[in-house]
Amino acid sequence: MADQVDTSPRRDLTLAVIAFVIALVLWQMHGLAFLTYPLRLFVTMIHELGHGTTAVLTGGDFGGFRVESSGAGLALTSGGWRFLIIPAGYLGTAIFGAVLLFLANRSRKPGTIAIGLGFLIGILTLLYSGVRLSNLGLFEMIILAVVIMGALYLILTQQTDNGRYAGFGVLALSGLLLMVFTGENNALTVIVGLASALLLVYLGFRARRDMVLVTLYFLAFITGLHAITDSWVLLRIVTMPRSMMPHNDAASMANEYGGVAAFWALLWIVLDVIIFGSAVFYTLIKPWQQGKTISAQQT
Predict the structure, then answer these.
(1) Which residues is 78 bridged to in the sheet?
(2) Residue 61: left (phi > 0), alpha (psi -120 to 50), or beta?
């Protein structure tokens, strides 16, 4: 008889709390660079994609994005509504965390969310990380297609871990071939985007529900917390007598729409707290309060 998967709200709430604790610890543990560095790059990617997707949604163009090894990033946009595009990095990260938290909490099949998110990140990476598929010749396209299909076949059909790991190795090879064929010089951005996409898709297809749910909750919490922290760091930077970072989103808002950079940074902190705090309240606190009320009535 197949094992029954526990999908009760109480268990999901417990998993959310576990993910929150892990995210909170890593968020504060600055000494664990080998663990926090990939997360920093992931958050930067979400930040830059926030600028770019907002530009597209408001009628502008997204020229591409870049993730630097320092953890900084850059998004190239033109046109669109700048009033929304400029803050979309900091606010977009909080919105990403809030929406992911909400979806993970409401879905009975979180694997579907992980797969969808993985494909979305992968597509955006291929479209906007600087990879030029048009540079591929017919022979190169055939080689790349064969390698990718072989990798996906191994990942999705093999019943052993060794077989799946081999599939991921072949898929990594396809990424290297892609960068070689297209002359890609923005390797870190491609690696961050495609690695995130592949891991999410793999988890969605292969991992147990609890593992997928904890991962989605964790990504939601880590991006939401970083959105608040990054806005706070921005506020500290723009209030320095001589800014070490003269070109930043808050300064751009002040230049284009008036006011001082500190005002915009402070406003984004408040909005980040409201956006992500509301998601945490409706995902964790309110269900916990309702559970306590029901327990009290039953006794």
Answers:
(1) 61
(2) beta
pLDDT in tens, 194-229: 889 888 988 888 889 889 999 999 999 999 999 999
Smallest Cα–Cα separation from 76: which of 39, 119, 122, 127? Answer: 127
From the list 144, 125, 249, 245, the residue with the least C-alpha distance to 186 is: 125
Looking at the predicted structure, is the pLDDT value of residue 183 above 90?
Answer: no
Structure tokens at 281: 């309240």
The token pair at 51 is 């600028």
* Extended beta strands in the chain, E state: 61-67, 73-78
Q: Mark residue 253 as left, alpha or beta (left: phi above 0; alpha: psi -120 to 50; beta: remaining).
A: alpha
The phi, psi pair for 66, rounded to 5°, reads: -140, 135
pLDDT class for 149, splitting at 50, 70, 90? confident
Burial label, 282 (beta-carbon count in 10 A; 0-12, 13-18, 19+)? middle
Confidence of residue 185 (pLDDT cuts 50, 70, 90): low
| pLDDT of 68 above 50 | yes
Cα distance between the two ends of the chain: 35
The dihedral built from the CA positions of residue 12, 13, 18 and 20, taken in this order, carries a sign that is: positive
Cβ-based neighbours of 258, under 8 Å, separated by 6 or more: none
Helix pair angle (187-206, 209-238), 10° resolution? 150
Tokens of residue 94, six digits: 């909080």
